[in-house]
Amino acid sequence: MNKWSLETLLELDPQEFENLLAHLFRKMEYIVEETQYSRDGGIDLIIRIEKFGLSHSWIVQAKRYSQPVGVKDVREYSSLKYRDSVDGVIIVTTSTFTKDGYEEAEQHNVKLIEGNLIIEMLNHYVPEVWTSSSETKEPRTNNDKEEAGTILKQGEEILLVEPVSMGKEKFSMMITNRNIYFNRETNRLFSRKKQVEIHIEIKEIIGLHREQNIFFLLSGKKKIDVYPISPKKMIKLQEAMASLRPAYVRGEHLILSTRKESLITALTSKRLIKIDVNSGKSDEISMGDIVGVKYNASLFKKNKIQVIESSNGMKKHSIEVNDGRLWKHEIEQLVRTS
């Protein structure tokens, strides 16, 4: 049976150390809230225990250090309890604390757990070294509103979690009523870590260009980004995205789209834009700058339109589309109402 040691803890990266502490406190029957890594405002964990109508909550700050933690760090983290209305602060380190650090902690109800003590706690509550191959799974409570390391806001509900691919990259796509998250799972030496790689607010979605086994999600404000998504279950994903349409169609939204190889041509309620999916480069024309659209119904030009732009002199753009007559009609309607 592998036992925990200080050397083992120092092999973890800071986030893995936080994940391990969360696992430990859950084993100790605490309710654990993990903050989103790198956006925690100085807080790593919030732990709470509720017994017989009594509730106590503590902020936990993890310091994977090899050098002693001094008075400066203790003073900095002691102030968090006033900001977050908890009962106190716990600082956990893989090293030790200085004499001044202990004195500062006594004045502010800060509990200090140094390396040797955390090793004893781990060997008692988590007797085997916790690795990514372990079959033990962390218990989840009804109060956990978390999926793949993502903390959901109050009122935010998960609609669908679906494995998808974007090119050669694989993600877990989580759709909520407010956001879309693309989470990636990576295996580390002592933990399996899931983290958010891409975050899109629903209100920033412009629309979807759909094809047989792939769809392209367009989102953004000034700059439009395109995400080529290949789901395992296209119908479920389409249904979830369709349910979100009323939430984003109030802003800029997609009217028509077509694709040829890596180039997507999109007509939105505000602009006509060509985007190269591979490079991300784009060329756009605002609806307010369009003064004319021509369509030639001849056999060889029926899928092309000519858009006349008045910005910085008169410019003519030849654009290949899938139905020239339809595109001309829609552009004219948007220009009249812009």
Give a quick account of the main beta sheet: strands, pairing sense, barrel closure: 7 strands, antiparallel
Round the mean pLDDT to the nearest integer and report it. 83
Please trace the helix and strand order, writing H or E for each element: HHEEEHHEHEHEEEEEEEEEHEEEEEEEH
Largest sheet, spatial ordering of strands: 11-10-9-8-14-13-12
Strand content: 35-45%
If you compute it from the alpha carbons, what radius of gyration comes out, rounded to the nearest whole angstrom? 27 Å
Overall SS class: alpha+beta
Helix segment count?
A: 8
- Mind telling me which CATH architecture of the largest domain this is? 3-Layer(aba) Sandwich
CATH class of the largest domain: Alpha Beta
Total of domains: 3
Poorly predicted runs of 5 or more residues: 37-41, 131-146
* Molecular shape: elongated
Give the termini separation: 71 Å
State the helicity in percent bands: 10-25%
Number of strands: 21
CATH-defined topology of the largest domain? Trna Endonuclease, Chain: A, domain 1
Question: Features of this protein?
Answer:
single chain, 338 residues, alpha+beta, Trna Endonuclease, Chain: A, domain 1, PH-domain like, 3 domains, seven-stranded antiparallel beta sheet, five-stranded mixed beta sheet, 39% strand
Short description:
The chain has three domains: 6-144, Trna Endonuclease, Chain: A, domain 1 (3-Layer(aba) Sandwich), CATH 3.40.1350.10; 145-251, PH-domain like (Roll), CATH 2.30.29.30; 253-338, Pleckstrin-homology domain (PH domain)/Phosphotyrosine-binding domain (PTB) (PH-domain like).
